[in-house]
Every structure is written in structure tokens, then in C-alpha cells.
Design a protein that fits this description.
The structure is a single chain. The chain has about 270 residues and is an alpha/beta fold. It has one domain: Rossmann fold, CATH 3.40.50.300. An eight-stranded mixed beta sheet has the order 3-4-2-5-1-6-7-8, sandwiched between helices. A hairpin with a 2-residue loop joins strand 3 and strand 4. The structure holds adenosine-5'-triphosphate and magnesium ion. The site of adenosine-5'-triphosphate has 20 residues, from helix 1, strand 7 and helix 8.
Length: about 270
């Protein structure tokens, strides 16, 4: 049975689509999983731009409108099946529709990864409702933290507590909130710490997900560690962890995620 992971945040530009594309690609390419990536950002869909699909024949909007079956809207790129969005779609989408429409195709995949909208409306709710687990993308600043807190509240209210925070665009710890600050404020574990990296410009320009475009980068290495915890595999220690013999807080959080998430959400039998 497939596991649907919603990548959410009600703040624009924090890196939802970047993370969703790289996570989907890593689960497929590094861990050999069958992955479907779906654009649930209906108003401003960008998954196609990140996954090199500029003129999709069929989209999630056709699927939601009942004009296409999900399978006919699948475009395969970088080893991932992708259902992109249509660039100009003006209708509102009822919050429960996505879950219903994806119910049959979900069974054909190990993971369904949902990109989502930055707006706290039915778009974000539809991703929350369709997901088995949520990961929230945040950046280490106060405005984003307040949005993250709000998203966590709404998710909890919907019975979908957030499994972890993905801390993205870490630039200068001197002027940024720390992992400990963020965990203290939200009571949610930080499960990945992704550095700001100018290589993302090249990734966006070439429309190749960062995990492939710069596979040796800190971003991609951390993404592999996060994906490892989602598939229930051990992660490789970094050279620093090998040297000092300890494990970072995010590594320990992923260990908890691996144990709780994998055994309760991905494969409840084991
Ligand atoms: N770790 C990073 N380092 C540098 N740039 C990044 C990083 N992560 C994402 N970006 C860049 O930030 C911009 C916004 O990223 P992205 O489109 O993924 O955000 P988003 O949350 O999906 O935005 P929206 O809310 O509009 O959907 C992009 O140009 C992307 O390349
Ligand atoms: Mg986006």
C-alpha cells in the first residue's frame, strides 16, 4: 500500500517544490521506490518546472475535473511518475477531491509525494487530507516560524500532526533561529537541515531536481538521509559524525522518525 507524504508550508518560497521534487527523486533513484509526485498547488503549480515538464498533455486539474484518469496524466521524469498542474486554472477545488481522485492510483506506488500551495485555504487542506504524513518546510527566521506554527495547528486540528520539520535555506546561524529554538517553539522534531546553496539556480534553470543536479551537495546528502528514514533504512554517518563518534540532533530525530513513521505509517506489519 502506498504512503502519501504531503510537503507543506503556508509561507511562499520556502522550498516546498524544491524539497518535494528532490525527495521524490531520491526515494526513486537512491532507494529504488516506485514514486508518484503530484502537484497539489493548483493556483501556481511549479512541479512541471522542476521536473522538466513544460507542456503537459494532461494535468492534475483534468484529474480533479473528472476529465482524465490519474494514470493518463502521468509523465515520467528522472525515474519518478509525475502528475503536474496546468498553469492557468481558475476554479476552486473542494478539499476532499484530491484524496478521492488519487485513491486508486496510490495503490500502485510505494510513495506518493504531494507538493502544495502556500495558502491556508482548501488547496493546502486538500494536501493535508490526502496525506498519510506531513512534512513542513520552514526557514530559520521568525516570520516563517510563525507560519509553521499556524500550519502545525491546522494540521493537528485536522488529525494530521506533522511528522517533522525540514529546515531549509540555512545561511548564517549567527542571525538565524537554531534547530533547538525551532523545536522548542513548535514541539515538532527537525528531521532535515538543508543549507542554502547557490547551485539551486542551476537546478532551476536546467529543470533538473537538485538531488540529481548536485548529488554530492550538502542539500542532496541530507535529502538522502531523510529519505533513508522514510524507507526504514539506516543512514550513512557523515565524516564529522564518524570523527566525533556522536550523532547530530537531526540524525537522532530521523532515527525516531524511522522507527515510529516507518513502522506505523509505511509498513504497519513489521
Ligand atoms: N536550500 C536552498 N538554497 C538556495 N535556494 C533554494 C533552496 N531551496 C529552494 N531554493 C530556491 O528558492 C526558490 C523557491 O523555492 P520553491 O519554489 O521550491 O519554494 P516553494 O515553497 O515551493 O514556493 P511557492 O510557495 O511559491 O510554491 C527557488 O528559486 C529555489 O531554487
Ligand atoms: Mg512551490
Amino acid at each position: 500500500m502506498g504512503t502519501t507524504i504531503g510537503v507543506i508550508s503556508i509561507k511562499g518560497g520556502v522550498g516546498k517544490t524544491t524539497v518535494a521534487s528532490s525527495l521524490a527523486t531520491t526515494l526513486a533513484q537512491t532507494y529504488g521506490k516506485k514514486v508518484l509526485l503530484v502537484d497539489a498547488n493548483y493556483t501556481t503549480p511549479h512541479v512541471g518546472h522542476h521536473m522538466d515538464i513544460l507542456e503537459p498533455q494532461k494535468t492534475i486539474h483534468d484529474v480533479l475535473d473528472g476529465k482524465a484518469r490519474p494514470i493518463s496524466a502521468v509523465h515520467t521524469r528522472f525515474g519518478v511518475d509525475v502528475i503536474p498542474g496546468h498553469q492557468s486554472y481558475g476554479k476552486m477545488v473542494p478539499a476532499f477531491k484530491l484524496k478521492d481522485r488519487l485513491a486508486s492510483i496510490k495503490e500502485d506506488y510505494d510513495f506518493v509525494v504531494l507538493d502544495s500551495s502556500p495558502h491556508l485555504n482548501d488547496e493546502t487542506l486538500s494536501a493535508m487530507i490526502a496525506s498519510d504524513a506531513l512534512l513542513v518546510v520552514s526557514t530559520p527566521d521568525y516570520p516563517t516560524l510563525s507560519s509553521t506554527l499556524r500550519a502545525a495547528q491546522v494540521a493537528k486540528h485536522r488529525g494530521k500532526p506533522i511528522a517533522g520539520i525540514i529546515l531549509n535555506k540555512i545561511r548564517d546561524p549567527k542571525y538565524e533561529l537554531s534547530l533547538a529554538d525551532i523545536e522548542l517553539a513548535t514541539d515538532i522534531p527537525v528531521v532535515a537541515q538543508l543549507p542554502d546553496d547557490k547551485k539551486h539556480v542551476g537546478s532551476t534553470f536546467t529543470r533538473i531536481p537538485m538531488s540529481i543536479y548536485a548529488s554530492a551537495s550538502g542539500f542532496s546528502t541530507e535529502m538522502r538521509k531523510l529519505a533513508a528514514s522514510l524507507v526504514g533504512q539506516p543512514e550513512q554517518k557523515s565524516w564529522w559524525e564518524e570523527m566525533v563518534g556522536g550523532r547530530s540532533r537531526a540524525t537522532l530525530n530521523r532515527q525516531v522518525l524511522r522507527e515510529s513513521f516507518y513502522s506505523s505509517v509505511v509498513d504497519p506489519k513489521e
